[in-house]
Design goal:
Layout: E1 15-17, E2 28-32, H1 64-90, E3 108-114, E4 133-138, E5 144-148, E6 155-158, E7 164-166, E8 175-178, H2 180-185, E9 195-198, E10 204-211, H3 239-250
Antiparallel strand pairs: 1-2, 2-3, 3-10, 4-9, 5-8, 5-10, 6-7, 6-9
């Protein structure tokens, strides 16, 4: 895939991206989404959240595109089941959360490779205790993340007391993170998972599915008050503009600094 990467490709959000030199987030990845119909009137042509995925040329050995698209849908359905259970636990209608994702979620399915640092890592990747990160501490901006870690270590989560704990992997299991979007709309009832990835001294691989609502999905604060008489009134807010502003101007992710603004429909 790396050999087929074309830096002149017009895609800016989906597809392959290489390791960026000098950044503490040391990874390369391939990401895909669910393609929307070109004549969909609800999607702006310049909305890169919905740009078509670009795929490597296949040699017939493995149906790469078909496999990843199938895995995307499996992960999506698993998340929908989890959200139904969350809704039941919150005492709200079972489909009240899943409705935020149909028909066009902004979710991303990604294959990640974390190469170990070669030589002296940059100072911004080094921690006070001598550990080195390949992804600095952060919370995911999405709704929910399902992660396939395989057998690789290196993932740590911050505990309630502010200390870090390694996440032990188990064969055939997934790791779930709550994202900022979900936590915020519930007033922190579900807490966003602060985590980081350490350099383990060898190549590390993982496959996350970042569940994100449709661009116009209402993720405004006080979401539960639509179904209960408790608390302040719900304040509607669309997912797309909120998460774009958050990633570019609050979290200031380097991957998003160069992404263009676009006219919405």
């Amino acid at each position: 895939m790396r050999q087929q990467w074309n830096p002149e490709n017009s895609n800016i959000y989906r597809g392959y991206f290489p390791v960026v030199p000098g950044e503490p987030s040391r990874k390369e990845a391939f990401g895909c989404g669910r393609d929307v119909k070109e004549d969909d009137p609800t999607v702006s042509k310049t909305n890169w959240f919905y740009e078509k995925s670009t795929w490597p040329v296949e040699d017939g050995t493995l149906p790469f595109k078909e496999f990843l698209q199938g895995q995307y849908e499996c992960m999506h359905e698993a998340c929908m089941e989890l959200l139904r259970l969350c809704a039941i636990g919150l005492g709200i209608p079972e489909e009240s959360l899943t409705d935020l994702f149909n028909p066009n979620p902004c979710s991303t399915f990604r294959i990640l490779h974390y190469p170990p640092w070669v030589g002296e890592p940059p100072a911004i990747a080094m921690l006070e205790d001598g550990k080195v990160v390949t992804t600095p501490e952060h919370t995911d901006s999405d709704f929910m993340t399902l992660l396939t870690p395989f057998h690789f270590g290196g993932l740590e989560v911050m505990q309630a007391n502010g200390t870090w704990a390694e996440v032990n992997t188990r064969p055939g299991s997934l790791i779930m993170n709550i994202g900022d979007t979900f936590s915020r709309m519930l007033g922190g009832r579900f807490k966003a998972t602060r985590h980081r990835v350490l350099d383990i001294g060898e190549d590390r691989y993982s496959v996350p599915f970042f569940l994100s609502p449709k661009f116009h999905g209402d993720i405004g604060i006080n979401f539960l008050s639509q179904y209960t008489e408790d608390g302040d009134a719900h304040v509607p807010e669309r997912f797309g503009p909120w998460v774009l502003y958050t990633m570019k101007h609050k979290k200031k992710y380097f991957e998003y600094k160069v992404l263009p603004e676009f006219e919405d429909v």
